[in-house]
């Protein structure tokens, strides 16, 4: 068991190959809306803070944030997911366009809302409340067939595929089977998972549970590297995937793959917000593999990207220049 990283020169060479590399993202697209205000008193009507409105902005969330991370790193992205026929879908479309992400493969369903998370936060980035607009039942019937068809069409010419599962209905067994059917040695399939769906991921190249998801799936405690090794092996067996990467926050990562097993030490950073860090990890992994990295090199690059993004507030992205500078 060894702690590993990637040499600076090799890292910069791989990052240089990111530009224009085509990657497919399939999953639960979301819109994150932030209402920002100041809190100076408690309401006389109930013991809750009164927030005086200052500003409002939106960000891409879920699978859309994975796509945003990929574009920020230089990739060319195709995005497949389900949206409603509502104002949130319109706002999501504008945000995707602003980020340079096409919406051609998004599937519209007028019977369900676009997944939207509205966060009320203070000027100091303290969250006061969150409101979720969603229907999280799995797509089925004709809607599921449309998602599969969109994924099949969008996979043409891509060099890596990502399934971003937030349990909002877009990732089903049938959708995963369609992606696995397209997987090749030169076309990896990566999954950012949710544990209730773990049996859906059979055949994936790499699945990336976080510490808590891995504990829940394997019923094993993870406190040490030995425990991480055991849990990662168990997770690979349960999910029937080729490899597993457990993200462990300030403890780094643990990679379990046929050709390598070992710890990847965390890159020391001041943490502002871990929201969306998993999106950054799976995006960087996929793009690095598409650019010719080994799984070990891809994991090391993703570890550096995660170290950068946790220093930002909300579902943020890492740019190619930021990642390259981390290896200066």
Structure description:
- The protein is globular and about 60 Å long.
- Strand 13 and strand 14 form a beta hairpin.
- It has helices at 8-16, 63-72, 87-99, 141-154, 173-182, 211-218, 225-239, 277-290, 295-309, 320-325; strands at 2-3, 22-27, 29-42, 49-62, 76-83, 106-108, 116-122, 127-133, 161-164, 189-192, 206-207, 243-247, 253-257, 260-264.
- Helix 8 packs antiparallel against helix 9 (295-309).
- With 328 residues, the protein is α/β, with parallel strands linked by helices.
- A ten-stranded mixed β-sheet has the order 1-14-13-12-11-10-9-2-5-6, with helices on both faces. The protein has a four-stranded mixed β-sheet with strand order 4-3-7-8.
Outline of this structure?
The chain has 328 residues and is an alpha/beta fold. It is built from ten helices and 14 strands.
């Amino acid at each position: 068991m060894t702690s590993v990283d990637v040499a600076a020169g090799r890292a910069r060479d791989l990052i240089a190959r990111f530009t224009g590399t085509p990657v497919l993202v399939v999953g639960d697209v979301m819109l994150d809306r932030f209402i920002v205000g100041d809190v100076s008193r408690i309401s006389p009507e109930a013991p809750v803070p009164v927030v005086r409105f200052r500003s409002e902005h939106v960000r891409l969330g879920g699978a859309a944030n994975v796509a945003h991370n990929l574009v920020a790193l230089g990739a060319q992205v195709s995005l497949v997911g389900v949206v409603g026929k509502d104002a949130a879908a319109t706002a999501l479309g504008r945000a995707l366009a602003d980020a340079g992400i096409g919406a051609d493969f998004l599937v519209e369903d007028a019977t369900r809302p676009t997944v939207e998370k509205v966060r009320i936060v203070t000027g100091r980035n303290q969250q006061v409340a969150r409101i979720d607009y969603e229907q999280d039942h799995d797509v089925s019937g004709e809607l599921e067939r449309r998602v599969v068809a969109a994924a099949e069409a969008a996979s043409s010419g891509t060099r890596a595929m990502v399934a971003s599962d937030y349990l909002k209905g877009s990732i089903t067994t049938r959708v995963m089977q369609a992606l696995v059917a397209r997987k090749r040695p030169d076309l990896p399939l990566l999954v950012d998972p949710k544990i209730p769906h773990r049996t859906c991921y059979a055949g994936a190249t790499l699945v990336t549970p976080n510490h808590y998801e891995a504990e829940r799936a394997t019923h094993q405690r993870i406190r040490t590297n030995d425990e991480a090794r055991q849990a990662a092996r168990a997770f690979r067996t349960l999910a029937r995937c080729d490899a597993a990467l457990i993200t462990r926050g300030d403890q780094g990562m643990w990679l379990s793959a046929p050709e390598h097993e070992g710890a990847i030490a965390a890159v020391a950073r001041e943490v502002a917000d871990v929201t969306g860090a998993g999106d950054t990890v799976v995006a960087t992994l996929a793009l690095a593999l598409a650019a010719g990295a080994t799984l070990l090199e891809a994991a090391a690059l993703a570890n550096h990207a995660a170290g950068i993004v946790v220093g930002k507030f909300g579902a943020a992205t890492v740019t190619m220049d930021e990642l390259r500078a981390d290896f200066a």
